[in-house]
Structures are given as C-alpha cells and as structure tokens.
Design a protein that fits this description.
The chain is α+β, with helices and mostly antiparallel strands. The chain is built from 12 helices and 17 strands. Helices cover 36% and strands 25% of the residues.
C-alpha cells in the first residue's frame, strides 16, 4: 500500500524550465473541491484573473454588447479563473522540495510491462509506475497504447501574447465573422494581452512543427477580415509563446496498460472549447492518487477509469457542443447571438433562462462524486 512506503516521484518536463505563459483556465465544480482538499484554494483565489466584462465588437471596433464575464462563461460563484502559468508555479512550489524534476528532457522509449523508460539525454531508468500527463500529443500514450486517439473537431486554434494596444483592463473582446473568430483579453495585473484565433482546419492539414507555415495559414484566413485583426496578426507573429494546433479531443477505450496510466489531456482532452481541461486533469489526478493509496496498481487503475469515465464523457460532449457556438456560420448568426446577449439581462424570467443555458456547464463540472481519501 502506498501509505506504507516512501513514494519517490520524478517529473519529466520537455521545457528547459518552468513555463510561465499560457492562457487563462477555469477550475470548476469538482475541481474546486480538489484544490480545497489540497490546501491551495486560498492561494488560487488571490491569483484570479478578475475579468469584468466581455464585449462583442463589429468590424469598426464598436462594442455591440457588454456582458458580465462570469455570466458569459457560465461561471458559478465558487468557480475560479487563473492563468495557466500561475497554477503551474503553485504546484511546482508545493512539490519541488520532495519531487525530482528533469527539465529539458523527453521520454523516447518505454516498456509498459516492466516500467523501463529511456530518455533523450538521461540514462535509462526503471520505475514501478509511469504516468502519462504529457498533453494532447502524448508520447507516453503512443508508447504505451499506440493507435490514433485524436478526434479532430475540424477547427484550428492559435494563441499568443500580444501588446495591449487597446489598453484593455480585465476586459475581453470577441470579433466574429463567418467561419472565423478572434478573441482578445487582458487580465488583472497583466501589461500585455492574449489573442486567440479560431477557424476551420484548412484542406490538407498542416505541419505541427512548421511555425512559418502556421503563420501563413493565419494570414490566409484572417488578413483583411476587419476590426484590428491585421494588427493582431502582426503581434502574434512575434509572440514568444506562439501556439497553433487543431481543436481535438482524446478518446480512449482504456486509460492504462501494465505499469502505465494516463491522465489529463493525454487521456481525455475535452478541447479548449469545453473550458474543462484543467478541471479534468485535477480531478483525475486526485482520483488516481486516491485509488493507488488503497489498492494495488491493477485494481486502482481499473477503479480510476470506472470513476472517471462518466465524468469524462459528459465533458467531451460539452466541448463538442460549445465549439459549434464559438464560430458563426453566417453574419446573421453572429448578429443574432449578440442581440440575444444584449436583451437577455432585461428579459422577464432571465434568471431561469440563464440557468437553462448554463446548466450543461455546471452539470458537466459536477458529473462525478469525489471519493473521500
């Protein structure tokens, strides 16, 4: 049993050091309970983005409608929104005294039955258990399970840090034209802004490692689209934290094999459109650690999957449903959506309508009963 032995943990991280960048992330529902049990909730509350409003803008930059950020994002009173880098730093600070971190390293080979692992630079090692938490394009998943686990949702997303030329203060802007969406925001305490481009995946796909080619796709899709899109394209081309990928989900028949188990995006990425990737990862880690604390690995892995599967499936569905509302198919759809948000706060029975719209989000966030450990 894990509570009767000293557990030694090694974390392998491709980046040469702790990464400070990233997008804002939500911690919702069951994940709030997890960070509270970890003793981290108060610290995270002190790092909230404190976003105030979200506005739809037209091609001339006029704000057509302003909506409270929590209302638009379907955020509950207890939910948190922080920057990804802040959460990573807290988790690192809490563990670096007792955990070995191998920065600038990758896993190149693995035997799922014996726990033998080879690395890009370090000497091979043998581990009792191996956990793959290495994201959408998980190398550990490929080595342990093989096969194609990605479900491409037909869109691509690009994110990066750009100058805050509009001097946004805890404000988010959305500009939408048929088939394309641009999102720009600046959070509390940030001098810069984050931009997101979202559009359909081009025919023929793209090279995931070809940044110039990716920038050309953005140019072809967004240059001349209106508003401040051209300036934002110039900005993201210079971003140190440039990100570009398909909007995809991970769908697996099982989350483990032999001595290896997967969690987070490596096991069940719901896509950024769900707003639930971080919460799934936190909850999954809690459930997996708890089951290992009271059962042998084979039993713990089976129980972990049994507990997580319904929660995962509901959040995968949420991601697919949300994506359909994030990219408009026509000018009429963009206009109608903005008008509905404009009049919603003044409509009779608005609270019931808001509750109905946000119910799928809250249901998905709470679609698991956390075990007590």
């Amino acid at each position: 049993m894990a509570d009767q032995v000293r557990v030694r943990v090694t974390v392998v991280e491709r980046a040469p050091e702790l990464r400070a960048g990233g997008y804002k992330i939500d911690i919702r529902g069951a994940a709030i309970d997890v960070v509270e049990r970890m003793g981290l909730k108060d610290r995270l509350e002190g790092l909230e983005t404190d976003m105030r409003f979200m506005s739809f803008v037209n091609g001339a930059g006029k704000r057509m409608v302003d909506v409270p950020a929590d209302l638009f994002m379907g955020r509950g009173e207890a939910d948190l929104e922080v920057m990804r880098g802040d959460l990573s730093r807290i988790l690192y600070d809490e563990t670096r005294g007792s955990v070995e971190y191998l920065f600038g390293e990758i896993v190149t080979g693995m035997d799922a039955d014996t726990g033998e692992v080879t690395f890009g630079q370090a000497a091979p090692r043998s581990f009792d258990l191996v956990f793959g938490a290495d994201g959408l394009h998980s190398a550990v998943r490929e080595l342990a399970l093989g096969g194609d686990a990605l479900d491409d949702l037909g869109h691509l997303v690009s994110i990066g840090t750009v100058p805050n030329h509009l001097e946004l203060d805890r404000w988010e802007l959305i500009y939408s034209v048929p088939g394309r969406t641009v999102n720009l925001y600046s959070t509390a305490g940030s001098a810069d802004a984050k931009v997101l481009f979202l559009t359909a995946t081009p025919d023929g796909g793209f090279d995931r490692h070809d940044r110039p080619g990716q920038l050309q796709i953005l140019e072809d899709r967004f240059r001349g689209a209106g508003w401040d899109t051209d300036r934002l394209l110039d900005g993201i081309a210079q971003a140190d934290d440039f990100y570009f990928d398909t909007v995809s989900q991970v769908r697996l028949e099982r989350y483990s094999r032999g001595r290896v188990a997967l969690l987070g995006d490596a096991a069940y990425c719901p896509s950024f459109a769900s707003g639930q990737g971080t919460s799934l990862a936190l909850v999954g880690a809690y459930v997996l650690a708890g089951e290992l604390s009271r059962s042998e690995p084979a039993v713990a892995f089976t129980q972990y999957e049994r507990l997580m599967r319904p929660y995962v499936e509901q959040n995968l569905k949420l991601g697919r449903d949300n994506l359909g509302r994030m990219v408009s198919k026509s000018k009429l759809q963009s206009w109608f959506g903005a008008q509905m948000l404009r009049v919603l706060p003044r409509m009779p029975g608005k609270d019931a309508m808001i509750a109905k719209v946000t119910k799928p989000i809250h249901d998905a966030a709470r679609a698991i009963e956390l075990p007590q450990h």
